[in-house]
Amino acid sequence: MRSACTLLLSMLLACGSAQALDLKLPANASMTREVIREADTLILPIGPYSTQGAPRLRLDGQIISRAWRFPAQGVTTLQILIPLRRQLEDSGWEVMFDCLAEECGGFDFRFALPVLPAPDMFIDLFDYRYLVARRGPEAKLEHVALIVSQSGQTGYVQTIQLTGLGQESDATGPRSPEVDDTSPPDVVQALKRYGHAVLEGLDFGSGDNALGPGPHPSLEALAAYLLTKPNTRVALVGHTDSTGGLEGNIALSRSRAEAVLSVLTEIHGVPATQLEAHGIGYLAPLAPNTTGDGRESNRRVEAVLLDTAAE
Question: Do 189 and 164 reside in the same domain of the chain?
Answer without folding.
Answer: no
